[in-house]
Design a protein that fits this description.
The structure holds 2 protein chains of 2 kinds. Chain A is mainly alpha-helical. Chain A has 23 helices and no strands. Among the domains of chain A are: about 90 residues, no CATH class; about 40 residues. In chain A, α7 packs across α8, α12 crosses α13 and α18 packs across α19. Chain B has a two-stranded antiparallel ribbon with strand order 1-2. The radius of gyration of chain B is 21 Å and the shape is globular.
Chain lengths: ~400, ~280
């Protein structure tokens, strides 16, 4: 505007007034209005800032001084060191959330390694999370978090981290395979479960990964499963108890979630369920399904969930239960196509042990009758054999002597 | 006069040797595959399943050998039928033949005489079948009836449970499993010792593979049979100068020792596993 002032006839007063009014509107004093431009900054920092990249970032339209305010205040050379950039000046809400998170609290405590905004978002290469160039693009998130949360990073030596090899485990998990192998950006990454700015320890009741919130967190994506689970015996909506009810991670784990139809998961089912249902798990292992499960190929045999269901487990009395009388033949026939009502009365968890004596006396007494037969037979013939041993030695010596005499 | 150490007499004919061969092959396979399932929590069992290619392979082998078992069971019945017909006796006369395979009062007397012999008395005057041999033979029959019927129930559980309630499958499992323990335990220790491993025979009595023993052995081990054969004039007809071929003896020794070793290893594994199991509970 001033440059275009091509009428020298206008008085200098008029120019000054206009200028003064402009400054008043901007609320700046005359010195500062002449502050540094990006070109001024690049005069020194040209080597460290790639302008083509920066101009494409979300902040590309902003001048350097809009973030580096201290530099903006300087006339020529800014003070060194400058105080850190305050993203919260604009991103107020996010900054407030971050401040309450485990990361934010650590920053506040003065932990120099604690993640600030730029630790995840970078400084001058901030793109939208939907932009593949962004460090917070789904495909890049595990690597971003893994800069600290993976063995080998300096963070793991300076800080006590409860979870080990998080990123490696994640990468091997079904979510990690979904992301890296199948290229699915809708798969869960770190922030899908832990949130992005509100990362809290699992022990914190407000954490998205606290036991009480896990179901809600997982069912953000697994909606259908959530609907089934909410009606099952394992849901706190159905079972009112002081005991710990299982949530998703108790059976599926957290960072090592595996495909449920694959060997590793299937072979772990009895143990997983056994964490709470110990007696049923051990009696299962005593019967054919469990025994054969321990041998190669055993993943094919019936596991807890094949008969009881998984997310939709109902009380036996419920007509919706897979092991309810009305449904059990159908449940068995998944593996035994010729199953019938009599067949379904096979006792999958019954043992001949003392604990089961009152419930299944016929098993208990059959076992002890057989054991008596064994002990009796072995006692008799065992003794017979033991007594025979010295006699047999003598007979052998006699025979050998006779042979020698014959030959001699 | 012929040298009785160079005279041979047939104890088991070719068919009987073949039957015992079938028993060895099927019994050993049944025992190994079955015990692998029974002791699936043990490392050795898992190694066997791994080597075999999975529990399904073991299951198939087990069922195949069950069929062989039923075959030799009926072949044995057929053999007994032919022996009965050839004997010209009545059925009762054949079954309760004092020198037959069914235990009788004389066996009780022989048992007592044997116990005396162990403590220094004279060697009993054994006949064609000793009481422990009769027990082996009868035990196979009792064993096959028990283990075969329960095994069939477990093989065809859907059909079986149309006849009896499903929980009978639980009972069948216990009986099948414990009878198997009894049978393998008995064969791999008592039978092996009585027949092969006792110092007089160690490491193997090849008669069940080569068929014949020397006349000397007959006189010494089964004097009553020898006397009976001599008295009836049968001995003259049966005795032969043809010794078992060297290759035949060698093959019998290799096969027999392999089988006895395998059974012994299995029974050691079973005993160790049971001790661990009982100790851990």
């Amino acid at each position: 505007m001033i440059m275009k002032q091509n009428n020298p006839g206008l008085s200098g007063i008029r120019v000054a007034l206009l200028y003064g009014a402009l400054l008043l509107i901007l609320g700046l004093d005359a010195d500062k209005a002449q502050a540094l431009t990006n070109d001024d900054c690049l005069g020194c920092h040209g080597d460290s800032i790639q302008t083509e990249i920066f101009s494409a970032t979300v902040h590309g339209g902003n001048g350097c001084v809009s973030c580096h305010k201290e530099a903006g205040a300087a006339k020529d050379e800014h003070p060194v060191p400058m105080s850190p950039v305050n993203c919260g000046g604009c991103h107020e809400r996010v900054a407030a959330v971050h401040a309450q998170s485990m990361h934010g609290k650590a920053v506040k405590k003065g932990d120099k390694e604690a993640p600030k905004c730029h630790s995840c978002h970078s400084k001058h290469e901030i793109f939208r999370p939907t932009d593949p160039r962004s460090s917070t693009y789904p495909l890049n998130i595990p690597a971003t978090c893994g800069r600290c949360h993976q063995e080998g990073s300096s963070m793991t030596t300076t800080h006590k981290m409860r979870e080990k090899n998080v990123v490696d485990n994640y990468t091997m998990s079904i979510h990690g395979k979904g992301l890296y192998k199948e290229g699915l950006i809708v798969t869960a990454t770190c922030s899908s479960c832990h949130t992005n700015h509100n990362v809290l320890p699992a022990g914190d009741p407000k954490s998205s990964v606290h036991r009480n919130n896990v179901v809600a967190t997982c069912t953000q994506c697994h909606v259908g499963i959530g609907q089934q689970f909410d009606k099952s015996v394992h849901s706190p909506l159905v079972t009112k108890t002081d005991k710990k009810l299982p949530v998703c991670i108790d059976c599926h784990s957290d960072h090592t979630i595996a495909r449920v139809d694959k060997k590793d998961f299937r072979l772990a089912i009895a143990r997983q369920c056994g964490n709470c249902h110990g007696r049923y798990s051990s009696t299962y292992l005593e019967t054919y399904h469990g025994r054969a499960s321990m041998l190669k190929g055993g993943e094919r045999l019936a596991k807890c969930s094949d008969c009881h269901g998984s997310h939709d487990i109902m009380p036996v009395a419920s007509p919706e239960s897979r092991i309810n009388k009305a449904n059990i033949v159908e449940t068995c026939s998944a593996c035994h196509p010729k199953a019938n009502a009599g067949f379904a009365t096979y006792l999958t968890h019954a043992t001949h042990s003392k604990e089961d004596k009152d419930r299944y006396p016929y098993l208990y007494y059959t076992f002890w009758a057989m054991t008596g037969l064994l002990l009796g037979t072995f006692a008799f013939f065992g003794l017979h054999t033991l007594l025979w041993i010295p006699r047999s030695f003598i007979e052998r010596l006699k025979a050998d002597r006779k042979n020698r005499e014959k030959q001699g | 006069m012929n040298d009785s150490s160079a005279m041979y007499i047939e104890r088991f004919n070719v068919f009987q040797r073949f039957l015992h061969f079938l028993i060895i092959i099927s019994f050993l396979t049944l025992a190994v595959t079955g015990m692998t399932l029974k002791f699936a929590m043990e490392g050795w069992a898992q190694a066997i399943a791994e080597a075999a290619g999975g529990f399904a392979v073991l299951g198939a082998l087990h069922r195949f050998c069950a069929i062989i078992t039923f075959i030799y069971f009926f072949l044995t019945l057929g053999m007994l039928y032919r022996m009965w017909k050839a004997s010209g006796k009545s059925l009762a006369g054949f079954i309760f033949d004092p020198e037959g395979l069914v235990p009788n009062l004389n066996d009780a007397k022989e048992l007592i005489a044997t116990l005396k012999w162990f403590f220094g008395g004279p060697r009993p005057h054994y006949g064609r079948w000793t009481y422990w041999e009769k027990f082996d033979f009868m035990a196979v029959f009792w064993g096959i009836a028990v283990i075969g019927s329960t095994g069939l129930a477990l093989w065809f559980p859907e059909g079986f449970s149309k006849l009896l309630p499903g929980y009978w499958l639980n009972i069948a499992t216990i009986i099948h499993s414990d009878e198997a323990l009894l049978a393998s335990g008995f064969i791999f220790t008592i039978h092996f010792y009585n027949t092969h491993l006792r110092p007089e025979k160690f490491p193997l009595d090849p008669v069940i593979f080569v068929g014949s023993i020397t006349l000397d052995e007959l006189k010494h081990e089964r004097p009553r049979e020898y006397e009976q054969l001599l008295a009836s004039g049968e001995l003259e007809k049966m005795v032969s100068k043809i010794a078992p071929a060297a290759w035949h003896l060698m093959a019998a020794r290799i096969f027999g020792i392999f089988v006895v070793s395998t059974g012994s290893l299995l029974i050691i594994a079973i005993i160790v596993s049971m001790a661990r199991y009982l100790g851990g509970h």
